[in-house]
Specification:
single chain; Rossmann fold; five-stranded parallel sheet; elongated
């Protein structure tokens, strides 16, 4: 793609000046439309070292209200960032509705650099590219405008700019080892950039190559590309994205009505097994930390099913420095204004740590579906998006354990009534709980569909019969211990 690129003819000085003015006028107008339509825009600026990416971004943002944009320079990942999935630090940067986010280098630069140094072999490169494709497609499907620019200069031009920067003590810091490696190995790097761009250019997120030899001309190209992208985004405003077919292997799940809820355990057996399982889990937690295996335990279930008590018996065996419980409520404004998975990406554990989610990303296909908080297209798309998200975590090396805590309507009513009549438990019951109970049958349909479509071989669902809460606690501990032993051995 890069090798076959033919640059557009640079306009004459007066024409360039007039076109810049027109682009500035449009951008000023479009940013207001962006805000009104709540359109988030992510601008990825990649390219050769010393191609002028930062200075051109600086010129472009002068035409945007400072309240509407943010610029982030993405250097090499820190030691802390390397302990999380590859896309973690980039997902964290995605903008809110109605705002721009400019990334000065990003996932392309990191992948190509690691491919150049040999840190990524062919298989890992292919996985990274697939991660990028999924991430970019999900952004676009969820209403983002993604503009990807590559600033291109010749080997000779790059060498001249590097030398110029190195001659001044005040600018020599701007030349890093990767810039020099690029110039010394220009043809090899050109091959890597070319392949990456070919692998990741798509109709919804194409690459635009900017002729960066002349800075004014580069500024105009970036401005006009950005304005053109905004115009198309406004035309396609609220267009439904295609529902993709599931490509991940699924585990057959029973209907909730088929689950045996009569299972129970005696008090004596409960105490004995609880101690044994918690002791074993405590040992495994130490090994998890040493081997740097991340663990994600997700809880969903009916209100009053016993999720909290179940979680408490698991955390009772863990070192408090090595886990975190995330109670998930309605999204905060900054969370609601981003891709719905953003608030879960940003809560992922470090390697060797455990994250426990009390309610999860599955709210998209349950409460958001039934309460009308998203469109039908949104929740139907979400099954595949969630499978992709969990696949990303699995390939990172995470152990993913998902529990649905199951009870019947009579048991729920009895527990609701007890909470209502017990002063110290009244905080556990809300009007919303009673309203949700009225939609039990609708929720059961949604849950059955969720279980069927998202129980994958790498992240299967486990249904915990919880009429006897103690039985459910022991079953959860058994499953957690078994899965961790499997991962560690």
């Amino acid at each position: 793609m890069l090798k076959k690129w033919i640059p557009a003819e640079k306009p004459e000085k007066e024409e360039l000046k007039e076109r810049l003015k027109e682009a500035e006028r449009k951008l000023e107008q479009y940013q207001l439309q962006m805000k009104e339509r709540k359109l988030p825009v992510l601008v990825l600026v990649e390219g050769w070292g010393s191609a002028g990416k930062g200075s051109i971004i600086g010129k472009v943002i002068r035409n945007i209200d400072p309240r509407f944009f943010r610029v982030a320079t993405m250097g090499e990942p820190t030691a802390e960032e390397k302990r999380r999935p590859f896309m973690y630090r980039y997902v964290a940067q995605i903008p809110q509705e109605g705002k721009f986010e400019f990334l000065d280098s990003g996932w392309m630069d990191e992948i190509v650099r690691e491919r150049f140094t040999g840190e990524l072999d062919e298989e890992d490169y292919a996985k990274r590219v697939e991660s990028v494709r999924r991430f970019e497609r999900q952004l676009v499907d969820n209403g983002y405008l993604l503009v990807k620019l590559f600033f291109h200069i010749t080997e000779k031009e790059q060498r001249k700019r590097i030398q110029h920067l190195l001659e001044d003590r005040d600018t020599e810091w701007r030349v890093n080892p990767w810039d020099r490696q690029q110039n010394e190995n220009y043809k090899k790097c050109e091959d890597l950039f070319d392949r990456y761009m070919t692998d990741t250019s798509s109709p919804s997120a194409p690459w635009y190559i900017v002729d960066a030899k002349d800075r004014k001309w580069a500024e105009l190209q970036m401005m006009e590309t950005l304005c053109g992208g905004l115009e198309v985004a406004f035309q396609n405003y609220r267009t439904a994205a295609p529902i993709l077919q599931n490509v991940f292997p699924l585990v057959k799940m029973p209907q909730l009505s088929e689950v045996d809820l009569d299972k129970s355990i005696s008090e004596e057996d409960y105490k004995k097994e609880l101690k044994e399982l918690q002791d074993r889990l405590r040992e495994l937690h130490n090994r998890l930390y040493r081997k740097k295996v991340p663990v994600i335990i997700a809880y969903e279930g009916w209100d009053a099913a016993g999720k909290g008590g179940n979680i408490k018996r698991i955390t009772g065996a863990l070192d408090p420095r090595g886990y975190e419980v995330h109670p998930i409520a309605s999204p905060e404004p900054k969370e609601k204004a981003r891709h719905y998975l953003w608030r879960f990406w940003t809560r992922l554990p470090k390697t060797g740590h455990i994250a426990i989610f009390d309610r999860t990303w599955y709210g998209r296909v349950m409460v958001e579906r039934l309460e009308g908080f998203c469109t039908e297209n949104d929740w139907k798309r979400a099954y595949n998006e969630i499978n992709e998200f969990e696949k990303e975590l699995s390939e990172w090396g995470a152990v993913i354990i998902k529990f649905w805590v199951q009870i019947d309507k009579d048991t729920q009513l009895a527990r609701f009534t007890e909470r209502q009549n017990t002063p110290e438990k009244q905080w556990k019951i809300t009007d919303e709980d009673w309203r949700n109970r009225e939609k039990w049958d609708q929720y059961e349909v949604a849950v059955n569909e969720m279980l069927q479509k998202t129980s994958t071989t790498y992240a299967p669902w486990y249904i915990l019969p919880s009429v006897d809460k103690k039985y459910a606690r022991i079953e959860a501990l058994k499953i957690v211990v078994r899965e961790l032993e499997k991962a560690l051995d």
